[in-house]
Amino acid sequence: VGVFFRPVEKINSVIETYPKGIAGFKRFIELMETEPDIEDRPGAVDVSGLRGDITYRNVSFGYSPDKPTIANIDLTIKAGETVAFVGPSGAGKTTICSLLPRFYEVAEGSITVDGVDIRDIKLASLRGQIGIVQQDVFLFAGTIRDNIAYGRLGASEADILDAARRAKLDGMIAALPDGMDTVIGERGVKLSGGQKQRLAIARMFLKNPSILILDEATSALDTETEKAIQQSLAELSKGRTTLVIAHRLATIRDADRIIVVDTNGISEQGPHDTLLAAKGTYSRLYHAQAGLR
Ligand code: ATP
Known about the structure:
By secondary structure, the protein is an alpha/beta fold. The protein contains eleven helices and twelve strands. Keywords: ATP-binding, Membrane, Nucleotide-binding, Transmembrane, Transmembrane helix, Transport.
């Protein structure tokens, strides 16, 4: 935890420690579900239809006040852009992303969305504009319909069906005897990893947020399924500002920009080809992972 392995021969530690990364993000998602202890400021505003321009200005934060986890982060993400955070385990990729839905408050500096400080936006409104897709899909015992509708409670049947279709879940649903009424969860039909991912994607089509956070959602899947899911995620991220927390570098080559986070903060950023040519940390990580396949 918090250890940064620099030598190339130790880079596989990044991969070995991936389960820890999943555990970290589980905490992250649990926070989305729990009642926040953050109260809205007086005069906090509702936002809807955000463009999704994001700016981090000199942002510092630590889980314990005496020890900064990230320090002096400056970052501008344009509306509709897809950026991928890469770097060694524990460097702070998840932490940077978790400040945006205000799971934690910045200690110093500020984060704005469309120019508005996120502390001046009502929390429910802010989180309503942010969608998260993660490795571990939260399913509850209930019908497929209800599980999709969880993305936007009260959604119409037509909208739910449309979301299922866009996430390419419709074929599977049609093949089930009870269709949308099929009960999933502990006592019902068990979904495969890929189907769970698709369900999570359907929820997000339904929620239709301006901003997406993807926690490398596909690494537990076989290659074929992973490719198909990647395609659906690319569909989902169209027209939305997307932050990808990447663990496997092969899947984020097409990001508009790759941001390398290490213990000293953001050390490099740029498109895949530019970073490879720069022969810095990204290029090292990339070649090390490619060699391990
Ligand atoms: P990974 O690739 O393993 O997911 P990461 O780059 O996303 O790593 P973070 O999860 O942001 O890194 O963690 C940064 C540091 O903060 C690590 O030292 C981690 O142990 C610590 N940390 C993360 N979450 C918490 C938490 N909820 N409480 C205390 N410390 C935490």
